[in-house]
Amino acid sequence: MMHSFIPPDRFFPYLTWVDVESMPDRANVVVIQPVGAIEQHGPHLPLVVDAAIGLGVLGRALEKLPSNVPAYALPSLYYGKSNEHWHFPGTITLNVQTLLATLMEVGEAIYRAGFRKLVLMNSHGGQPQVMEIAARDLHQKYEDFAVFPLFTWRVPNIAASLLSEQELAFGIHAGDAETSLMLSLLPNQVKMERAVTEYPQGLPTESLLSMEGNLPFAWVTRDLSQSGTLGDPTTATKEKGDRILESLSDGWVQVLKDIHHFQLPQTWKSNTNSNRTCDR
Fold first, then answer.
1. Do the domain assignments include residue 271?
2. How far apart are the C-alpha atoms of 155 and 153, rounded to whole Å?
3. Which of 40, 100, 146, 223 has its CA 20 to 30 Å from the CA of residue 126?
């Protein structure tokens, strides 16, 4: 199944060129590019976590999405910018230039095909800035191209209500939330007997600086963790993962509806028209 978690009728590569050419109102069709990573996720989770979560959430959302909202998923970009994890065997990383160039060229191909709405659905915390740069550059190059650099976890969801305060603050990698989701999506690939709890070590105290947030410092994973885990996966459950999956996918249904109806603000057009009126 090349479409993985994605419903086959929503999987862009299953279309023919004739299907694309005859598609009505292509300017308002939503095309989604999932972007994941192949990187270590502690001793208990497979390398594919970020890509699997993105595809799992998107697939469930597309199953729920009303048929009158046209939206199609591209194949996942499994590799991402994961150099913070490269000291752990198995991590495969692209450099920022390669990832950015790939996103730009995919976006340009989608634009050439007549589409005007592209979602960069990123599931890896080490690369949202690359998505934002690609989105801005694509829109600057094609001014009628609406590009949305979105993070899988930032839609409204209930995950925070299911996690401890410590996990919310520091469980950013292979912890409770990701492990619970993987128990829901790919339970046979989770080795709970290997799960260890490890929170970031050596963080500054009584300081404005932090690992993440408004005033961060640069770090790689081995600075903070020996196991590669940043969080507590031992409290993860499939039931919790099922609830998070449903909640995230509900959030994505709403976002995809909003994008379908979205119209780019382009005040420069009205200014141009006003100037032409004045010239007369």
1. no
2. 6
3. 146
Give, to the nearest 10 degrees, the angle between helix 128-141 and helix 96-112.
40
> Is 247 inside a domain boundary?
yes
State the Cα torsion 120-123-127-132 to the nearest 10°: 30
Domain extent at residue 117: 9-264
pLDDT at residue 280, as a whole number: 46
Say if CB 228 and CB 85 are below 8 A apart: yes
Identify the pLDDT of residue 213: 86
Helix, strand, coil percent content, the chain, rounded in steps of 5: 50, 10, 40
Residue 2 counted as domain residue? no
> How much is the pLDDT for 266?
84
CATH of the domain at 213: 3.40.50.10310
Q: How far apart are the first and last CA of the chain?
A: 61
CB-CB contact of 238 with 187 (8 Å) = yes
Q: Does pTM surpass 0.90? A: yes
Give the count of domains, the chain. 1
- Mean pLDDT, consecutive 10-residue stretches, the chain (280 aa), reads 96 98 97 98 98 98 98 98 98 98 98 98 97 98 98 97 95 98 98 97 91 93 97 98 98 98 88 54
Residue entry with tokens 């963080």: 203
46 DSSP 8-state letter: -
CA distance 15 to 70: 13
- Please give the order of strands across the beta sheet that includes 71-73: 71-73, 30-35, 117-122, 146-151
* Total residues found in the chain within this entry: 280
Domain assignment of residue 273, yes or no? no
Q: Do residues 145 and 107 touch, judged by C-beta distance below 8 A?
A: yes
Coil, strand or helix at 76: coil
